[in-house]
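Example record used in the benchmark description.
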Amino acid sequence: MRLFIFLYPEKSMLLGGHTAQQAIQRMANKFVATKMATYKKRSKDIIFLDDFLDHLENKPQDVVFLIHWGPDVAQLLKRLKGFPIVYVAHSTNWKFSVPKNTPIIAVSRHSQAYWGKHAPYNPIYYLPNIIDAQFKNTTADREIDVLIMKRKNSRYVLNELAPLLKQHCRVKVVDGWIDDIAKEMRKSRVFIYDSSEYYQSKNVSEGFGLPPLEAMACGCHVFSSLNDALSDFLEPGVNCHQIRAGCSDFDLQAILSTLRSEGHFGDAEKTVLPWREPNVCIKTERIVISINHFFDGLSMVAKPRSALSKIISHFLTRDTQPNHPPQLPSKDKSTTENDLYSFTYSDYDKHSYDCNTPVRTKAVIH
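Model output (structure tokens):
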């Protein structure tokens, strides 16, 4: 197995995509050796990419680089050309293309469909984010009627709906990064999330949408937008309510009605079970094995191509040197005498690593 190097701009970034990538690394580390490396800011005891590349000049196939940070992906793809690379797509629409033979890991089916359209012949895998065990439904008192996260929420929710709700119930608006947001969710009855406006303004997609699913796991009634990857798991009328489908008074009455009711959509734990770590770990193991096998196949195809290049070069240069009798190329580790007389790609017919690879090629010496 190759060493899987997870690349981050810097070690500490309080952002969802960063923490989700760390969770993927933690799971992958159960099955392959992994290392964290940064490429913008140096950190103590963490590999810095420039330093690491200096030691890999002669062994580029010994590692796999996993990149994810949308604004930097295009630059990293160019910088790491020639190395095995995997792109982990936490969101979409970053306006870059992914080279052929670069596997893509999508954290949502929405992202998987996007890359299935824009990179249809790249290996594509679906590996969803994890809902941590701390996000669970408890019997604790629900002292917060409505919980709203300011980050990514719409102006409609923050400036119009929240003030209306505060006239009728206990509303808590949390700002910034909350380390123990699970604790707040476990104390809340309703959770409101409307990220559509935010992602439209950024012109990128909601890559997964952890907060509504985490709130659902904590037993909250979720009122949410349905943009992008949120539709992977949200079903209005089945496990959530759609926000902003009518006027603000309609939303107000729907939320107040929910607060008066003791009903719920069903077993929250059953709903989020596919995103719990044991189930996601099963997918992780299969994916890292498949990716390693894929790069093994590319390496196998590259070696005979190198041998064939030497043969072709020999015939092209032989006629330009009339004073020297024709000689067979000297044997080396990658070329045998049998290779020279009959070379075939038949062993690789079953693979589809490169659509341009000839199915069978034979060089015959006269």
